[in-house]
């Protein structure tokens, strides 16, 4: 059963940032990259939940050839992933946005070399409750009104809309999606919404609130 409906979306790049050194070591082997490969150890990563399915697939393929090596991946958000990477606690970072200039400088100061790979393009979705029968499309200007707090009721967006409070939901600052929305929609104006790190919670909030709107 459909519990929410999408109004539209846009594409953003998702990246994988690899450090120059990892926790796994490789010894010489006459057998090459086989199940008995001498690559061993643990490689740790953190970052965007958007990239997690890609990492899981890569890990499956890698593990099939390197049974002595382990890849651990945590999804605490793009921002937190970069913090862990800069602190030297992880070997790779998943990101739903490009690495920021200040993050590049911090890595340089730490002496951490890295390589950035663009691995996919992701869609940012604006969603409302399935019982919302009046909003079929929305402009960037109206999105900014809603997420800045200027429009507090749907009738503030359009006088033909219900005179009911808007329930506004968004990812928190740990997400690259939050950064993208802030820059591209909000023109760096602060987002006024109920924020959550867990995307599933945002989806559930839109499902449970007839006047809800969210992005993820």
UniProtKB/TrEMBL annotation:
It is found in: Cell membrane. Belongs to the PstS family. Part of the ABC transporter complex PstSACB involved in phosphate import. Residues 24-50 have a biased composition (Polar residues). It is a lipid-anchor. InterPro entries: PBP_domain (IPR024370), Phos-bd (IPR011862), Phosphate_ABC_transporter (IPR050811). The complex is composed of two ATP-binding proteins (PstB), two transmembrane proteins (PstC and PstA) and a solute-binding protein (PstS). Its main location: membrane. Residues 23-50 are annotated as: Disordered. One of its GO terms (cellular component) is plasma membrane. This is Phosphate-binding protein. GO terms for molecular function: phosphate ion binding. Residues 36-214 form the PBP domain. The lineage of its organism: Bacteria, Bacillati, Bacillota, Bacilli, Bacillales. Keywords: Cell membrane, Lipoprotein, Membrane, Palmitate, Phosphate transport, Signal, Transport. One of its GO terms (biological process) is phosphate ion transport. It comes from Staphylococcus pseudintermedius. It comes from the Bacteria. Residues 1-20 form the signal peptide.
């Amino acid at each position: 059963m459909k519990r929410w409906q999408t109004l539209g979306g846009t594409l953003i790049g998702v990246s994988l940032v690899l450090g120059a050194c990892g926790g796994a070591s490789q010894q010489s082997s006459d057998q090459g990259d086989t199940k008995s490969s001498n690559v061993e150890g643990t490689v740790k990563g953190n970052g965007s939940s958007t990239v997690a399915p890609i990492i899981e697939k890569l890990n499956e393929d890698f593990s099939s050839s390197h049974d002595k090596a382990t890849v651990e991946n945590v999804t605490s958000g793009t921002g937190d992933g970069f913090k862990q990477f800069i602190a030297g606690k992880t070997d790779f970072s998943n990101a739903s946005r490009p690495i920021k200039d200040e993050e590049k400088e911090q890595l340089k100061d730490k002496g951490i070399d890295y390589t950035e790979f663009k691995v996919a393009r992701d869609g940012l979705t604006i969603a409302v409750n399935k019982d919302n029968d009046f909003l079929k499309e929305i402009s960037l200007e109206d999105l900014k009104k809603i997420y800045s707090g200027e429009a507090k009721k749907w009738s503030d967006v359009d006088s033909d809309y219900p005179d009911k409070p808007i329930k506004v939901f968004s990812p928190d600052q740990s997400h690259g999606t939050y950064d993208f929305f802030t820059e591209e929609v909000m023109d760096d104006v602060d987002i006024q919404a109920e924020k959550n790190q867990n995307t599933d919670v945002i989806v559930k909030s839109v499902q449970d609130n007839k006047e809800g709107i969210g992005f993820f």
